[in-house]
Design a protein that fits this description.
The protein is 41% helix and 17% strand. The protein is α/β, with parallel strands linked by helices and 446 residues long. It has two domains: 182 residues, Leucine Dehydrogenase, chain A, domain 1 (Rossmann fold, 3-Layer(aba) Sandwich); 165 residues, Rossmann fold (3-Layer(aba) Sandwich). Strand 1 and strand 2 form a beta hairpin. The N and C termini lie far apart (46 Å). The structure holds nicotinamide-adenine-dinucleotide. The site of nicotinamide-adenine-dinucleotide (NAD) has 23 residues, from helix 7 and strand 7.
Length: 446
């Protein structure tokens, strides 16, 4: 029987070949583009709890048509080489789509992070980094990892520290060897939320475009019901932003141990606090809990956002999906057969290549910041503040009225790093959606 990761790789290949069938490429070129250039398997031992433990990990380099290559590192007990190769291929295609100058790569360690203490995880991560470094699979100009499932700022901080120790003569640019770092280690404001915010911009772009069906003709999310599968980094930020900024009702959140539901809309921040405190979304007092029930995604909703794992929607459950719009926040959450089944029923699917590109876009900003050694906005901020202050004063003099107090601070603000990062991300997501009109002329800003 085919494994989940083999099915994932097959799905990525299938979608790619389908897309290529619309182009007239020279013979053999599509095949060359989709093949993964190399996959390195590493096995290493770490002495923990009084004995030796063996670990296995992978780093795939899908394409080096741009360097460095870029892609997250996943910690998951079901990781394997095929999954990593599928994810690396998606990275190549994603970077091309949003015009970010990286090739595609991806990595994984076969480990359940919940089984190890932070101290143990640090030793394992440092050892993994040493192995990647020995093989030239980490470095600012060659290969730049980032967080993915089971990893975050903390793991990236350990990796950059280990890389710096191993390469003491290259210290000047060494912080650019990974992205998704904490701010204190050379990270950038807005990276943690970036993928979820990109999901929000993707949905907004879809709704704004009158060539699309929208949500049954509706062009905004006010009051729309949303189901989110996976309440980790991507799912949580997407749910929070869509409910707080766009007026959506997140009615169902699905996790690996069941789901919670509230038809009035869940308080996302309170649910996150509950999950952090108890280790589960179940038992949250602002919702009904369905422990062990894996049918959360099948509940009625306008928008379904799978933000957990690949192949979450497959041939067996596709018929039960009732959403009008499926937004692929995870990588490869809709298996290609399920994709066909949903589309034949008129369901719109926004693809992962676009929807979750926010992470790599802001990673690119972080990498540029590390190499230029200048925080975003540093040289401009005070000049913009002074200019805005002059405009506000002139308006007050001309009209004889005071500038509205509730708008004053925002207007005078010169552009902090977080504002510039959000604005840059929004620009990339919007201009990627509509790069050209049907007659081929540009409509985007880039
Ligand atoms: P994460 O580890 O922070 O969160 C994943 C969540 O999904 C966890 O809460 C986990 O318990 C839950 N989950 C796992 N299996 C599940 C299941 N069967 N049903 C329901 N919930 C389940 O990971 P993340 O960084 O949020 O990544 C999620 C997805 O988004 C992955 O496909 C990843 O490759 C993709 N992605 C992440 C980023 C990023 O910046 N982190 C960028 C692009 C794409």
């Amino acid at each position: 029987m085919q494994t989940n990761s083999a099915a994932f790789l097959e799905s990525v290949d299938h979608n790619f070949r389908h897309a290529m069938s619309f182009l007239e490429l020279p013979e053999g070129l599509a095949e060359r583009i989709i093949q993964c250039n190399s996959t390195y398997t590493v096995r290493f031992g770490v002495r923990l709890r009084g004995r030796m433990y063996s670990f296995v990990g992978w780093r795939s380099v899908h394409s080096e048509h741009w360097e460095p290559v870029k892609g997250g590192i996943r910690y998951a007990s079901n990781a394997d080489a095929e999954e990593v190769e599928a994810l690396a291929a998606l990275m190549t295609l994603k970077c091309s789509l949003v015009d970010v100058p990286f090739g595609g790569s991806k990595g994984a360690l076969k480990i359940d992070p919940r089984e190890w203490t932070p101290q143990e995880l640090e030793r394992i991560t440092r050892r993994f980094t040493q192995e990647l470094n020995k093989r030239g699979l980490i470095g600012p100009g060659v290969n730049v990892p980032a967080p993915d499932i089971g990893t975050g700022e903390r793991e990236m901080a350990w990796m950059v520290d280990e890389y710096r120790r191993a390469n003491p003569t290259e210290v000047i640019n060494s912080r650019a060897c990974v992205t998704g770092k904490p701010l204190s280690k050379g990270g950038i404001a807005g990276r943690t939320e970036a993928t979820g915010r990109g999901v929000q911009f993707a949905i907004q772009s879809f709704l704004r475009d009158t060539r699309t069906p929208g949500l049954n003709g509706r062009r905004d999310l006010t009051g729309a019901s949303v189901t989110v599968q996976g309440f980790g980094n991507v799912g949580y930020h997407a749910a929070k932003l869509l409910s707080e900024d766009d007026g959506a009702r997140v009615t169902v959140v699905v996790e690996r141990d069941g789901y919670v539901a509230n038809p009035e809309g869940l308080s996302i921040e309170a649910l996150k606090q509950h999950q952090t405190r108890t280790g589960s979304i179940l038992g949250f007092e602002g919702a009904t809990s369905f422990a062990g029930d894996m049918s959360g995604m099948e509940q009625s909703c306008d928008v379904l956002i799978p933000a957990a794992m690949e192949n979450a929607i497959h041939a067996e459950n596709a018929e039960c999906i009732k959403a009008h719009l499926v937004v692929e926040a995870a990588n490869g959450p809709v298996y290609f057969e399920a994709d066909k089944m949903l589309r034949s029923r008129g369901v719109t699917i926004l693809p992962d290549l676009y929807v979750n590109a926010g992470g790599v876009v802001v990673s690119y900003f972080e990498w540029v910041k590390n190499l230029t050694h200048i925080p975003f906005g540093l040289r401009e901020r005070r000049r913009r503040e002074r200019r805005n202050h002059t405009i506000a004063t002139a308006l007050e003099r001309m009209t004889g009225k005071e500038f509205p107090a509730d708008m004053r601070d925002e207007f005078l603000e010169g552009g902090a790093e977080i504002d510039l990062v959000r604005s840059g991300l929004e620009d990339v997501m919007r201009s990627t959606w509509t790069p050209c009109r049907p007659d081929g002329t540009a409509t985007g800003t880039r």
